[in-house]
Amino acid sequence: MNVVELHGLTKAYKKNRGIEDITFSIQQGEVFGFIGPNGAGKSTTIRTLLHFIHPTGGSAKIFGKDIIQHSKDIRQNVGYLPSEIHYYDDMKVIDLLKYSARFHKNFNQNRMKKLADRLDLDLGRKIEDLSFGNRKKVGIVQALLHEPKLLILDEPTGGLDPLMQNTFFELLSEERDKGATIFFSSHILSEVQKMCDRVAIIKEGRLVTVEKVEQLIRNKVKTIKLLFDQVPGIEFSIPGVIQKSTHGNEVTLLYNGDLKVLLAKLQELTLKDLLIEEPSLEEVFMHYYEKSGVTQG
């Protein structure tokens, strides 16, 4: 069952780039990553999906309901964490959370306190006295408070220290184990690789590909590390070498061609060592971003 479905979703602006023809779906219980650098269209996609801004084309459904006709009903079961947190500065954290909880049917005060304790958040402080990281904690509690069936997280770890990031990921794992679906938008690729089942890559407002994280990394692309006593002055002109870097006596290649062809070429060289491994998500991501043009995934 698909919890989220986008079909050709488009948001056009006169001057600024929006999004164009975004199509993908998210299955129930899935952790779905949405990656791209700042300005690629991640937040625009999310805000259009939540009907904070009106689409200029295409359609989308959440829980099988149209995002325009049923936006109020949809939000009852969605927890949303925006990339930038803005609240009423003169309110105390506990008052803000109680106020927010009135928009949902299943508010549990004990859950609010437990979430605040896990995140080391002082409920008695005023919003204006909080750091950016602590404001982000308020947003996390607000998003999780009503035990939503769908969590939509836009750059959720900004401002959190490494220990608190680990706590946050533990909370997400617990929600996933309870059956929640998670839409995780980020430009931090290590987070996506750690958390997500599938990932969509967006570039300049258009979708590049949608793949399982495991498949994206293993999809013919390999990292080849060559160690020489002395790096020869050679050019890897054979097809399939899509990236090359040299550090001292080590040459690293990102390669998506036939390994037999590459190994035959390497036999001509005097190698000290050779390592073939799966690339990181970051290396694969950069490969997609360095390609000329954008293709629909």
Detailed description of the structure:
By secondary structure, the protein is an alpha/beta fold. It is built from ten helices and 14 strands. It has helices at 42-49, 71-75, 93-101, 109-118, 132-144, 162-177, 189-195, 213-218, 259-266, 281-290; strands at 2-11, 19-27, 31-35, 57-62, 65-66, 78-81, 150-154, 181-186, 198-203, 206-212, 222-227, 241-247, 250-255, 273-277. The strands form three sheets. Strands 6-7-8-3-9-10 form a six-stranded mixed beta sheet, with helices on both faces. The chain has a four-stranded antiparallel beta sheet with strand order 2-1-4-5, with helices on one face. It is elongated and about 70 Å long. Residues 292-297 have low confidence and may be disordered.
Question: Care to give the gist of this entry?
Answer:
With 297 residues, this protein is α/β, with parallel strands linked by helices.
CATH topology of the largest domain: Rossmann fold
Tell me, what is the CATH class of the largest domain?
Alpha Beta
Beta-strand share of residues: 25-35%
> Taking strands numbered 1, 2, ... along the chain, how are they ordered across the largest sheet?
6-7-8-3-9-10
Name the CATH superfamily classification of the largest domain: P-loop containing nucleotide triphosphate hydrolases
Elements, N to C (H/E) = EEEHEEHEHHHEHEHEEHEEEHEH
What are the segments in which pLDDT stays under 50 over at least 5 consecutive residues? 292-297
Secondary structure: helix percent = 25-40%
Rg measurement, Å: 23 Å
Number of helical regions: 10
> How many discrete structural domains?
2
SS-derived structural category: alpha/beta
The appropriate CATH architecture of the largest domain is 3-Layer(aba) Sandwich
Shape: elongated
> What composes the largest sheet?
6 strands, mixed
Total count of strands: 14
